Every structure is written in C-alpha cells, then in structure tokens.
Amino acid sequence: MRRFLARRTGAAVVELVRRGIKPSDVMTAAAFQNAVTLLASIGGSLNALLHLPAIASELGLEVTWAQVAETTSRVPLVTNITPNGDMSCVNLYKAGGIPAVMKTIERDLDTSVMTINGKTLAENLAEDIKIDRSVIRTQDDPASVANGIQVLYGNLAPEGTLVKTSAVPADQHTFEGPAMCFNSEEECFAAYNADQIKPGTAVIIRYEGPKGGPGMKELHRVTEIMKGIPGSAVITDGRFSGASGGLSVGYLCPEAAEGGPIALIQDGDIVHIDLASNAISFDVSDEELEARRANWTPVVHDFKGKVLRRYLKEVGPAKDGALLGC
Q1: Is 185 in contact with 222 (CB distance < 8 Å)?
Q2: Among this protein's residues, is 241 annotated catalytic?
C-alpha cells in the first residue's frame, strides 16, 4: 500500500512540474485560511498551530493565532473524532474522509484555490462525494457548535495559549484553583506518582517551550494524568497533540524561558480559566509580579550537544511557529 501511495505521489509531483505548478501556487493565503477552517471543523491537532504559521512564514505569508481564534469562533465542529468524541479516524475515512468534510463546509471555504492535482478546489468538490451523516454532521446540526479550538489570553498568557475546547467536558469550562508548579515534565510525573497532586489543582508545567526544552518535546502523556486528578487543569508552555481528558492548556506564550508570567507564578497562587470569555489569569498584582521578576533566575535544563544550544539561542515563540533565526 505504501509503495503504491509513494508511486502516486511521485507521479503527481512530476505532473505538477510538467504543468509548471509551484508550491507557492498551491500554498496561498486563501489556502492557508482554508486549512484553518478545516482544522476548526474537525477539532484537529493543536500542533497545526505550530506548523501552519511556520510553513506560511517560509512563503512570506502569515497565519496568526488571532486568525485561528476568529475562525474557530464561527466555524462549527462537524465530527467527533477522538479526543473530541468516541469515533476514530477509521470512522471518518469510511464516512468520506476529508473530501466529505470539505464538501460539508464548502460555503466557508475559498474554492477558487489551486490544488495539487491541478484542479481548483471547486472542481474537486463538484465530484460525487459520498457522505455518512452519522459521522459527519451538517453545519446546522444542533450538535455542531463552534469553538472547537480556542486561544485564551490574560495576565498568565499575555500573548495567548491554546486549548482544544471540544475535548474538555462541559463541566470543566470554568476553573478556579491553586497552582502547583513544576519546572519539567519529569518533576510533574514524580509528584503525580507520589500522590502529591490533589484534585482541584492548577498543574503548571513550565520550561518545556521551544527555548525552555529546548526543543518543545511532545507532552501528550501529561494530559493523561488529568484522568487521575479530578477537577484539575494542566497549564504548560509545552505542547501536546491532543488532550486525553480534562482541561489541558498548552503552547503558552511567552514561555517561562523568556521570562513570561508562567515563570513567575508560585505554588498556591489562584488560577482562573473561563473558556466562555477566552480568559486565563492568576491572582497576582502587577507590582508583585515585578518584585518576583527582580529575583527570577531562568531554569536551564541539563542537555548535551551544540545543536540544541544553537537552537535555544535562535528559536522564536510557539505562536509564530517556533521559527529559527527570530
């Protein structure tokens, strides 16, 4: 199967070259907006909010978290693939796959864009596409609601932080609780395994961002611990591809290694999250924050190798795609 797909891919590339269609002809500003719209419709991976800004930047274009927030606030989620529900990608594939989703949300897409088969999106969507509505709902279905992905702002995340709202139970859309701070994923797991994290805690995992890691490793396992800590939240400047359960907030900017407020929050500070207001904050005054900043020393993880050291010096924030040379 993979050899067959590889052969088809190679043939498609040769055909694009033959027709003079360049990557920049396909990856336009409108195409990136279509990608954001599709992401909102399926409640896709938060990692796309790293990849899309980074790829767009290489083309001299821009995909911002503000753009994502505007799109996800109005485009409804039309399918409940895990972790947004109990269906798998196999269910989505059998229901018609991404073409069926795009046909469903066609009114929200720019269908004039060129695609990699040399046809416009409108031409592709004009083909006979079978759709299983038990898996892919219409946009006006009562179960199709917007805000599958949200960008939260506040004094804890002045430049934004991401949450996959579609994976958060409705009774956890608001949160208030004391912070418990960890300077690495490993510290958090050690505390969890020692039964030191109590229900209702705001679990802060910092120094896991692009600079802090360095490298922004996958923290998906961290979201797993939410199942064992009821009524709590995980807040991190690290990343995770999808939340397994509970209230998981990540990609927070500015990160701890840059001296963001997440570096200054302390155990016991009260954290507030309100998804209805796109808000995340903690109860510490500006004056107290400045006093803490005066005594702040960044945590630098022990790592080996010159490549990561160069990466640490050159990498930019997650909200811009963690680009090098920023």
Answers
A1: yes
A2: yes
Percent of the chain surpassing pLDDT 90: 79
83 φ, ψ (degrees, to nearest 5): -90, 10
Six-digit token string for 48: 């796309």
State pLDDT tens for residues 12-66.
899 999 999 999 999 999 999 999 999 999 988 899 999 999 999 999 999 999 9
Instruction: Kindly name the residue from 241, 244, 248, 285 that is annotated as catalytic.
Output: 241
Quickly list DSSP for 35-81: HHHHHHHHT--TTHHHHHHHHHHHTT----HHHHHHHHTTSPP---B
**Mean pLDDT within 260-277:** 97
Mention every residue, 6+ apart, whose C-beta is less than 8 A from residue 132: 94, 95, 96, 100
Query: Is pLDDT of 10 > 80?
Result: yes
- Are residues 208 and 215 in contact, defined by beta-carbon separation less than 8 angstroms? no
CB 224 within 8 A of CB 210: no
In whole angstroms, give the CA distance from residue 185 to residue 259.
18
Phi, psi of 195, deg, nearest 5: 60, 40
Distance CA(315)–CA(321), nearest Å, equals: 9
Could you tell me which of 246, 243, 211, 221 has the C-alpha nearest to residue 232? 246
Cβ(227)–Cβ(199) below 8 Å:
no
Q: What is the gyration radius of the CA atoms in the chain, in angstroms?
A: 21
Looking from the CA of 306 toward its CB, the CA atoms found within 13 Å total 0
User: pTM of this prediction?
Assistant: 0.90
Q: Is 119 helix (H, G, I), strand (E, B) or coil?
A: coil
Which residue's structure tokens are 């790293």?
50
What angle, 0 to 180 degrees and rounded to 10, lies between the N-to-C axes of helices 29-42 and 48-58? 170
Does residue 181 surpass a pLDDT of 90? yes
Backbone angles phi, psi at 120, to 5 degrees: -75, 165
The number of beta carbons lying within 10 Å of the beta carbon of residue 267 is 11
The helix/strand/coil state of 1 is: coil
| Continuous segment of H or E residues that includes residue 234 | strand 233-236
The one-letter amino acid code at 99 reads P
